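[recover] target loaded
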């Protein structure tokens, strides 16, 4: 069955906007077709289309089940902002890998403009990634922050891992299953200044090496998210 995101309205679900356009004009689904619909909760609904209107499809709920593709750990990626296409790629992969939220921030060597990141476009990317990986709860992308503001958030996490080139892998990286709330810090195209690295370490983060080679920022993000997700049991 095809997957969609919709809005629950009593005992019915309505599919609107781009999702409705895809349902009606691309897939050409008709009344009576069965679909799977997510409403950004742990539950996935088995539905039947009962009407196709001007602005949306109304669906009758025939059943529901818990979605096994949702994250079971609360993992946040603190991502220094990158150029638009790279950031979109990172958000897409974060959703597929099982990251709960992405918090972009401005660091010393950031070259991208904050305005490059369009919320509506990112939401579409996240929804498509959720459908592809069979996840019903969308990754949250928060507003752009500063180094100061993200450091303030570190105290709310069980552990924060910092992708830091030229360092040894932290011992804690092999014990991630015991943590429920994990933070990951990854730099932009220009990396981090020495001052920022020292501030992260002073704030109690664990430096983690991604190997002997220097990776592109988007590669580093995917590598770090994948490693943490797998080793934490997410």
């Amino acid at each position: 069955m095809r997957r969609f995101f919709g809005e629950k309205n009593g005992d019915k679900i309505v599919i609107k906007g781009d999702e409705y356009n895809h349902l009606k004009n691309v897939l050409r689904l008709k009344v009576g077709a069965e679909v799977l619909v997510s409403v950004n909760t742990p539950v996935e609904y088995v539905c039947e289309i009962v009407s196709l209107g001007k602005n949306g499809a109304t669906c009758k709920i025939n059943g529901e089940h818990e979605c096994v593709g949702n994250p079971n750990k609360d993992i946040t990626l603190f991502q220094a902002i990158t150029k638009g296409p790279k950031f979109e790629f990172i958000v897409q992969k974060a959703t597929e890998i099982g990251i709960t939220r992405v918090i972009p921030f401005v660091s010393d060597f950031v070259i991208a403009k904050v305005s490059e990141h369009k919320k509506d476009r990112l939401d579409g990317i996240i929804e498509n990634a959720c459908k592809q990986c069979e996840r019903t709860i969308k990754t949250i992308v928060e507003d752009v922050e500063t180094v100061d503001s993200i450091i303030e958030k570190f105290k709310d996490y069980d552990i924060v891992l910092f992708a830091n080139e030229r360092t040894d892998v932290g011992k804690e990286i092999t014990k991630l299953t015991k943590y429920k709330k994990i933070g990951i810090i990854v730099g932009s195209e220009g990396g981090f200044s020495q001052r920022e690295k020292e501030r992260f370490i002073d704030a109690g983060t664990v430096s983690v090496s991604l190997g002997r080679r220097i990776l592109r920022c988007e590669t580093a993000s995917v590598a770090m998210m994948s490693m943490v997700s797998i080793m934490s049991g997410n």
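[recover] notes: The CA atoms of residues 210 and 223 lie 8 Å apart.
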